[in-house]
Each structure stands twice: as C-alpha cells, then as structure tokens.
Amino acid sequence: EKGGYASFMLKEIAEQPKAVTDTLLGRIDPEGTLHLDEVRITRGELREVDKVVIVACGTAYHAGMIAKYAIEHWTRIPCETELASEFRYRDPILDPHTLVVAISQSGETMDTLMALRHAREQGAKVLAICNTNGSTIPRESDAVLYTHAGPEVAVASTKAFLTQLVACYLVALYLGQVRGTKWGDEIRTVIRQLSEISGSVERVLETMEPVRELARSLASHDTVLFLGRHVGFPVALEGALKLKELAYMHAEGFAAGELKHGPIALIEDGVPVVVVVPSPAGRSVLHGKIVSNIQEIRARGARTVVIAEEGDEEVVPYADHLIRIPATPTLLQPLVATVPLQVFACELATARGNEVDQPRNLAKSVTVE
Ligand code: F6R
C-alpha cells in the first residue's frame, strides 16, 4: 500500500503535485474565474465580511499564517490567524460579520473544534477547510471547502499542508473576486499561476537528491535553525516543526528580521541555518534584507543552507548549500519552498534511525484538548 515507497511519508510527499491539482479541479473555469458555489455562504454574506479569523493547530496553523498574507493582500479585509488552542480562552471579538476559517486535515482536532464552536456561539460564520469528508469539523461548520489530498497516513502532515495552502489561496482569491478589489487583474493572473503550480512542485521533487545528501550529512547535529520573511516565515516554522517531530532534533524557525533582537546569539561555528529566500522579483526590499541576514550569520560561523529561486544569483556567494526552487509569485512561493524542507526532515529522521510514519509520542489526530 506504500506503492513501492519506503514510507507513507515519502509516498505522500511524492503525491503532492496530484493533490494540488485535485484540490483545484473543477474550481477554476477556462476564463480564469473561480467557482466555489459548494461553499454555502452567499456572495451577499461574503461581501459583508469585515474580519477574517483563522484558527488551526500545528501544520494547519502554518497554512493559516500564510493565508493571512494572501487574504489581506488580495481582499484588504483585516485577517488574524490564531492557534485554535488559545482562541476561546481570551474572549475573542466576534460577530455575524466575522468569517472564521477553521483549517484541519482530520476534521477531528479537538482544539480546532472547540474554537469553531465558540465562534458560532458568538454568531460568527465558520468555513472549514478540511481533508476528511463528513468529519466533525465540517459537520459543525456553516460551510466547507474540502481539500482533495486523499488519505494522509503518515503522522507528519505533508500533502495535506500543500492542499490547505491551495484552499486558503482559493478562499482569498474568491473573496477578492466576489468583493471586487483594485487587485482584480492581479487576482486573475494569480488564479492562472495557481492552476499551473503543480508543475513547479513536480520539478522540485525531481531535484531533491542533493537535499537528501545534505540531510544525511547533518544527522549528528543537535540543532538546526530556520529563517524566513513574509510568507517564508511560516515556511521556516513548518520546516522546524517537521524536523522536531520526525528527527527529534532541536529546531526553531525565526522571522529573519528578528535575528538581531535575540536569536543571532544562537549562531556559532557550524550551526546549520536553513534560509528561505523570498522571490527577488517584486519584493526586492525583503530580498536584499535577507541576503544581508545570510551574510551576517555566515560571518558568525553558520553553515548556510539557502533555498532560493532559480536565477537568484545574489545569494550564491553566501550559500554553503544552495537548494533551487522554480521562480514563483511571492504569495504562492510556500507551495514550492516547503517541499525541500519536508524531504530534508524525512531523510534526516531516517538517517537517525527514526520511524518516520509513526514518530514517538504523536498521534495522527488529536481528539483531546
Ligand atoms: C504536523 C502535524 C500536526 C497537525 C495538527 C493539526 O506534521 O501533523 O501539527 O497539523 O495536529 O491537525 P489537523 O489538521 O488534523 O487538525
């Protein structure tokens, strides 16, 4: 049933281009317009939304963090993303114009379920993004957008994460489309780019051998740090989470701009630091800043593992290891940048003799608070 792969995780990583395609299927028409009529919230109701609140846990929370950038950029509706486990305990401000988006692969995560129940009690509308048909979270929500990743067996989430991202982009773009923002042209362009993105994911998968080699060479390290900015920050957090849960290593993700506010003190000789570099196009300010960060940490002894787009030559002198990803529109970059981090964690865990499908102390769905 692992289809010739050594683990379900490897199989599920390899299935990502198809999972992405399946999640887009039937939702974009040939003119590049989104059709999400299955989401049973009327256009009128969507036009009245004045705040979006995303609740989720773990990897799904990272997808939600990325969604915040997309939603605010394309719709100009204020959006916050919160850990589902924290949400209801601070008496959040919700009303019928708040759209709460609950993201969950399993649809059974108790923290997320309790957050959505609280939101509905306060009169907010809840849209679930979920991978499991008929599970509790979509059943208790006002509306659902299913991800079509297929069953995810490995405890560590991979293909579900990519499809959660796709679903989040669809929600953001749909809100933009329904409400008609000044980004109308950009929205149409991005819908087209999104419909072609699975090819880029495929290309990343074809070039992973150097990542595997690098992972094996780091098997005896104690710590790996991850840096990113903008949507690359949640990607860094996701890379660190994968490494913790699979390789049982100390791993932390930071927003690169925070380095100087503390974490740079962690940099010492030989410490591997994975840096997710934003697209040089369009976001040149951030790009320049992260290139300086790479220089700074390297000058202090870090072994830099740089994930950068093809054609980005500026990073080359400062990369001890360079991992190339296809050039991708800024907000969509997480769909390609996360994949090497999944492969990296999986290979490192295997090199350390760990069971990647069933990491210690973890369960696939967490049905207690
Ligand atoms: C990490 C992982 C967990 C889940 C989290 C939420 O690889 O799998 O962090 O993402 O427990 O689970 P769902 O999405 O089922 O609500």
Automatic annotation (TrEMBL):
Keywords recorded for this protein, A-Z: Aminotransferase, Cytoplasm, Glutamine amidotransferase, Repeat, Transferase
Reactions that this protein is recorded to catalyse: D-fructose 6-phosphate + L-glutamine = D-glucosamine 6-phosphate + L-glutamate
EC number: 2.6.1.16
Active site as annotated: 364 (for fru-6p isomerization activity)
Enzyme class per UniProt: transferase
Lineage: superkingdom: Bacteria
Chain segments annotated as transmembrane: none
Residue span(s) of domain SIS: 42-181, 214-359
Subunit-level organization: Homodimer.
Role played: Catalyzes the first step in hexosamine metabolism, converting fructose-6P into glucosamine-6P using glutamine as a nitrogen source.
Protein name: Glutamine--fructose-6-phosphate aminotransferase [isomerizing]
Lineage: Bacteria, Bacillati, Actinomycetota, Actinomycetes, Kitasatosporales
